[in-house]
């Protein structure tokens, strides 16, 4: 298994980290019989108060407090009272930036993931969508604020980074409440050719950095 990502990896601008997280691994319960490894296939970048699509658009609250914290920590929130959504905090402390993990591909721990998702096959429906990722990793709000670069129940590992020619970009999903500029902003990133991606029709090849 690859090494854990460092805190310095996350201490960069949110869009850079969102793109660089493609191909990296999320590891739940490493070294135990319940170990699950997922490969990140789709992300979304959310900025601070200047981003009207972000949870930080109205400032610091009890709900979004972890998003303002130091980089490399988790921000988990509940969507529609049901789905646990995993975000990875980026940038300098106090910026209010985070990357939503939108979709993943199964690497190992399939039996555990299928049981958690109540599915009997490894189709994209298993992990294509942020609520599905949260369910597969058995996350809850107690993970909010947890470090991803230290040894723990949830870790972010190096995996295999994706080269520019294999990256797709497009607008974020479900941000109709944001202003026109932020609704159109291409802050969603995905692995080209992956089946484990949502709303693929709105994605296009990224320009090389």
From TrEMBL:
Protein name, as recorded: Putative 3-methyladenine DNA glycosylase
Instruction: Enumerate the GO terms in the molecular function aspect.
Output: alkylbase DNA N-glycosylase activity; DNA binding
Query: Taxonomy-wise, where does this protein's organism fall, top ranks first?
Result: Bacteria, Pseudomonadati, Myxococcota, Polyangia, Polyangiales
Q: Which Pfam families match?
A: Pur_DNA_glyco
Report the EC code(s) recorded for this entry. Answer: 3.2.2.-
Write down the PANTHER family for this protein, in alphabetical order: DNA-3-METHYLADENINE GLYCOSYLASE
Q: Record's SUPFAM superfamilies?
A: FMT C-terminal domain-like (SSF50486)
> Which keywords annotate this record?
DNA damage, DNA repair, Hydrolase
For biological process, the GO terms are: base-excision repair
4Fe-4S is among the record's keywords = no
Q: Where is the signal peptide?
A: none
The family note in this entry says:
Belongs to the DNA glycosylase MPG family.
Q: What class of enzyme is it?
A: hydrolase
Which species expresses this protein natively?
A: Sandaracinus amylolyticus
Q: Does the keyword DNA damage apply?
A: yes
- Give the superkingdom in one word: Bacteria
